[in-house]
Design goal:
This is EAL domain-containing protein. The protein has 13 helices and nine strands. It is α/β, with parallel strands linked by helices. Helix 4 runs parallel beside helix 6 and helix 6 packs parallel to helix 8. The N and C termini lie far apart (58 Å).
């Protein structure tokens, strides 16, 4: 009502907004230097099958080891980076780093899992994006099957025809495609049947509502069933509790990711996690 509208207007004129452009500039400069100084790292979070715990893939999650502020998660810098051309080299670094990691883990027998890479909006919409992926794969020497790409609904819906074409090119290279944070965006359900996809990842907000919230239960079950009907795999992220695991398993969810399985891990931690599971 009127109060809500009033609040919004007040927020709109919040003084901190005037600082945004300035802050962007500062962050951009720092990001550029960070890239040059090699301060970025990828952490990896396992995605497992609920029944046997088999490792299916590891999601690569960007971290910035800031010399002063410590290890930073993407929320503190990715939004700014997305607004700048700098996101292109940063995204390119992520893709190449993930391919190198897949190569290393396969070669050393650490894990046969895929690595899932989060794409940025600017990166996905670049002319010839699939060609740059092909170039990275051949330079590093890995088959496309070793990588999965995670896109948001928004990236797909902005230009459906363009997305279909790019995704077809990527899948022809062997890559698989997952829709991240599924259920929070604006995917017209009709498009789900046209888009060349492999997997839906149910957004954490729904998983957080399990088992107690009726709405979260209904939406989660519906997404699982819809994915099955469409012949797609379906994953859940943000799994924190045993009840969530068993419900998702009962409903037929293919993959689980979350603190209950493992938090995002450094390369060293991830390798230790794999060894420990083999042992026990
Ligand atoms: P996302 O792709 O949806 O990744 C899942 C996020 O949820 C990760 O946060 C992960 O650490 C967190 N998460 C997973 N399970 C749990 C859990 O059980 N509990 C809690 N508290 N958190 C959990 P993170 O690493 O901070 O990444 C946030 C977002 O930043 C990602 O969301 C993704 O959209 C973006 N991002 C991360 N890495 C990259 C990247 O390399 N490139 C691009 N473009 N975006 C990235
Ligand atoms: Mg993701
Ligand atoms: Mg997500
Ligand atoms: Mg997200």
């Amino acid at each position: 009502g009127a109060k809500a509208r009033g609040d919004k207007q007040y927020q709109f004129f919040e003084p901190s907004m005037e600082l945004t452009a300035y802050n962007d500039l500062v962050v951009e400069t720092q990001l550029r230097e960070a890239l040059a100084r090699d301060e970025f790292e990828l952490y990896y979070q396992p995605q497992i099958e609920p029944r046997h715990g088999r490792l299916v893939s590891a999601e690569a999650l960007l971290r910035w080891r800031h010399p002063v502020r410590g290890l930073l998660t993407p929320e503190s810098f990715i939004a700014v980076a997305e607004r700048h051309p700098l996101m292109v080299p940063l995204s390119q670094w992520v893709l190449r780093r993930a391919a190198l990691q897949a190569q290393d883990w396969h070669r050393r027998g650490v894990a046969q899992a895929r690595i899932a890479v989060n794409l940025s909006q600017v990166q996905f919409r670049l002319e010839g994006f699939a060609d740059t992926v092909r170039a990275v794969l051949s330079e590093v020497g890995v088959p496309g099957e070793w990588l999965q790409l995670e896109l948001t609904e928004r990236m797909l819906m902005d230009d459906v025809a363009g997305a279909v074409e790019t995704l077809q090119q990527l899948r022809a290279l062997g890559l698989t495609i997952a829709v991240d944070d599924f259920g929070t965006g604006h995917t017209a359900l009709a498009h789900l049947t046209q888009l060349p996809l492999d997997k839906l990842k149910i957004d954490q907000s729904f998983i957080a509502g399990l088992p107690q919230e009726n709405g979260a239960r209904a939406v989660t079950r519906a997404i699982v069933q819809m994915a099955q009907g469409l012949g797609l795999r379906v994953g859940a992220e943000g799994v924190r509790r045993r009840e969530q695991w068993s419900l998702l398993q009962d409903w037929g969810c293919d993959e689980l990711q979350g603190e209950l399985v493992a938090p995002p891990l450094s390369v060293t931690q991830f390798e230790a996690w794999c060894r420990q599971r083999e042992g026990g």
